Predict the 3D structure of the following.
Amino acid sequence: MISSHVYWQNQFFQKLAPFSLDPFHILIIEFMHECELGTWKGLFTYLIRLLYALPWGSELFVVLDSRYE
């Protein structure tokens, strides 16, 4: 089993620990900052096409579209 021998609890972590807040889960880097715009656009287009491929996909797309109007 691999283990780390590095002390990783900093002051930020210790101050938030009593509130059950983990800063490593709070400060997650957004997906769009990790990939190029073209990659994200291709993935999003693929997911929309999968949505349309479902038997009730057109109704689901109307619901999705209404949420972002």
In short: The two ends are 50 Å apart (CA to CA).
